[in-house]
Amino acid sequence: LEAVFRNNVFRSPMVRKGSIFRELTDFLMFSDTQVCLVEAKALAVLNSKKTNVTSKRVSAIDKDIKKAFRQLKGALRVLRSDGIIFDELGNTIDFTQDSSTIFHVIILLSEINPFLDRAELARELVSHSDVVNRIFFHILDLEELVQLVANIQTPEMFSTNLLVRWRTVWENGDILVRYRRPPQRSTPLYLLREHRVSVQPK
Questions:
Q1: What is the DSSP string of 122-165?
Q2: pLDDT digits (tens, 9 = 90+) for 123-157
């Protein structure tokens, strides 16, 4: 991510309430046109609670995704209300936003488990998003994030790819899509890994 956003990548940014600092989210990245929030809660679930019981594993991941939605919505409210954000050293993080700023709000998973209710997660993702105010929620896994970063050079390309991916998820009702760049094509293409399910935005 540093290769794309350069010096505008911050791990564990913080907000202050009185004399107490608390973590805003896991990662904050930004450019002149966009702000990205990343929450990686499900990584800890898969690494620390390994189990052969699929239903328990899926339930733990689903619970963590819902928690990440809540935390990211709270972090987004702080950012959009012009709250002061600090880095790990307590220095103020300065960035600008206006009515044209795009907000990418990302839940990062180790993997997208095939037994998750992907259609329901797609509906949640769309319902939490706000196209009018340029707020787009995403659920990615590490494989997809690596593909995204490996095929771009600028923050603008990162944003464009995420927007195309969001539309693919919305149109097909499935969060399990993969990035592909066909030959002789300037815009990214996202392919469904498996089935298609329709979903309607609110």
A1: HHHHHHH-BTTTTEEEEEEEHHHHHHHHHT-SSHHHHHHHHHHH
A2: 999 999 999 999 999 999 988 888 888 878 889 98
